[in-house]
């Protein structure tokens, strides 16, 4: 039996990577999915590939969320997945001493403000039915400090906390609207391209990345999508305000642990 049949789901940043994998998994489970992204061209390709409707939506633009609410005033599942590292246009300093205010704000505008507006849309779109599932894609970087990507880590930590505020707010109102966050570690998606390079350098970069991961590999977008399916489904009806890590075991221990 399909686990998401009859559910209308909105996914942000769904043109590629984790968002697209979640869209595919939701469709496979019988959901009807609206793919959204700010990259119109890649989004159109993904929509065609998955046979789903698309809407260009830039998560940092309030007018785009208003437009979505006009088109789709109700929804059962909203996945706030769109996010940036800040390194998309190339490497730049993102440490606490040298990051520029503009770079700091740009990361927060998309990752945090976008998730805030996505949750706000979701609550309003689910309120009438009194039920729904909001899934926010945070990161392992939202649980620990990342010296070289401080804005990313800060924005993802704030998403973790905001997810709990949303969960409690909805419960206080007596609504069956759940809100949870997913915290992936390194998942092989196009997001990594600017940081991995090519050829031998790429192999070395990948090896260095997974060196301290207990399972010794990158995760796959489909593995994150499997958690999103669970949280979107009615099987998760008593799960709210929680965080699910998917990290090959990284957060289970510490590099400083004795006897490692
Ligand atoms: N890949 C990883 O290792 C990893 C780990 C932890 C968390 N995450 C998080 O998972 C989410 C998806 O990451 P991914 O690896 O698939 O990245 P990706 O770069 O492959 O895909 C991100 C998508 O979001 C879209 N996007 C970017 N800015 C947007 C905006 N303002 N409005 C709408 N869409 C926008 C992009 O066009 C792209 O299609 C992000 O929030 C990311 O921070 C990824």
UniProtKB/TrEMBL annotation:
- The highest taxon in the source lineage is Bacteria
Protein name (record): Glucose 1-dehydrogenase
Q: Which Gene3D superfamilies match?
A: NAD(P)-binding Rossmann-like Domain (3.40.50.720)
Would you identify the family this protein belongs to, as annotated?
Belongs to the short-chain dehydrogenases/reductases (SDR) family.
Would the keyword Metal-binding be found if you checked this record's keyword annotation?
no
Does the keyword Oxidoreductase feature in the UniProt annotation? yes
Pfam families, A to Z: adh_short_C2
């Amino acid at each position: 039996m399909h686990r998401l049949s009859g559910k209308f789901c909105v996914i942000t940043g769904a043109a590629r990577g984790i968002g697209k994998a979640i869209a595919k998994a939701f469709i496979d489970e019988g959901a009807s999915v609206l793919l959204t992204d700010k990259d119109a061209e890649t989004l159109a390709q993904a929509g065609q590939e998955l046979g789903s409707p698309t809407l260009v939506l830039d998560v940092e633009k309030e007018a785009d969320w208003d437009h979505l609410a006009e088109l789709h005033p109700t929804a059962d599942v909203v996945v706030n997945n769109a996010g940036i590292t800040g390194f998309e246009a190339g490497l730049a300093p993102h440490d606490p001493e040298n990051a520029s205010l503009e770079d700091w704000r740009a990361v927060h505008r998309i990752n945090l403000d976008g998730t805030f507006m996505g949750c706000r849309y979701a609550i309003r779109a689910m309120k009438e039915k009194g039920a729904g599932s909001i899934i926010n894609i945070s990161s392992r970087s939202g649980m620990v400090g990342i010296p070289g990507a401080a804005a990313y880590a800060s924005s993802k930590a704030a998403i973790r906390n905001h997810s709990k505020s949303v969960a409690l707010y909805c419960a206080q109102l007596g609504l069956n609207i759940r809100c949870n966050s997913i915290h992936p570690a390194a998942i092989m998606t196009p997001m990594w391209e600017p940081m991995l390079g090519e050829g031998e350098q790429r192999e070395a970069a990948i090896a260095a990345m997974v060196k301290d991961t207990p399972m010794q590999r990158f995760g796959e977008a489909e593995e994150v999508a499997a958690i999103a399916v669970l949280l979107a489904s009615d099987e998760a009806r008593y799960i709210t305000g929680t965080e699910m890590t998917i990290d090959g075991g990284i957060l289970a221990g510490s590099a400083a642990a004795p006897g490692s």
